[in-house]
Amino acid sequence: MVLAPKSRIALRLNAEPCDVAFAPHKTLLEVLREDLNLTGTKHGCELGECGTCTVLLDGRPVLSCLVLGLACDGHAVDTIEGLAGAGLHPLQTAFADLGAAQCGYCTPAFLLAAHALLAANPKPSRDDIKQALAGNLCRCTGYIKIYEAVELAAARLRGERAEPAPETLYGRR
To answer: What residues contact residue 80 under an 8 Å CB cut-off, 6+ apart?
Structure first.
């Protein structure tokens, strides 16, 4: 049996230099999960329709199931594993505070898409948030808690004293 030759690329992965060798036909999703053991990026439809595999490529959200690993040579890739620093990122905290994660399968993609939005627009409107997250599907929520979590994180990142509204946590009374 003859093994196909592996290709090698160098990239910045979660702000760290990284060299990786893999079969040249692999997508970025496959390289992350299978060759780098970063399983936070999820397999979804593998057709670019659900957004579950979203990662940041040079700071912009991309569907890793549609990007060839070879195309990432010399670029920066950020995954959910790199979002938190010493503690949880404010987006992660807001998602937890508001119960926006539900089952959690789509959460890494939503967090990374929201992170890119807030890096570009620290005070997004609800419509800005909806547009930035529109490519990500969630089968568990009605999206409202996700939008509210992004709004809460944005306020906290701006240094505002922000707490969830009681109706967000407990419903209307």
So the answer is: 40, 41, 108, 111, 112
At residue 38, what is the residue type? L
| 51-84 per-position pLDDT tens digit | 999 999 999 999 999 999 999 999 999 999 999 8
CA distance 167 to 164: 8
| Region for residue 146 given its phi and psi (left: phi exceeds 0; alpha: psi -120 to 50; beta: otherwise) | alpha
| Helix 107-120 / helix 144-157 crossing angle, nearest 10 deg | 40
Which neighbouring-strand residues pair with 77? 13, 57
pLDDT of 3-21, one tens digit each? 778 999 999 999 999 999 9
Q: How far from each other are the two terminal CA atoms of the chain, in whole angstroms?
A: 68
Contact 98, 145 (CB under 8 A): yes
Strand, helix or coil at 25? coil
Closest Cα to residue 30, out of 18, 42, 15? 42
**Domains, the chain, with CATH or none:** 7-82 (3.10.20.30), 90-170 (1.10.150.120)
Question: Which token pair is 146?
Answer: 């996700």
Cα angle, residue 61 at apex, residues 67 and 21 outer, rounded to 5°: 40
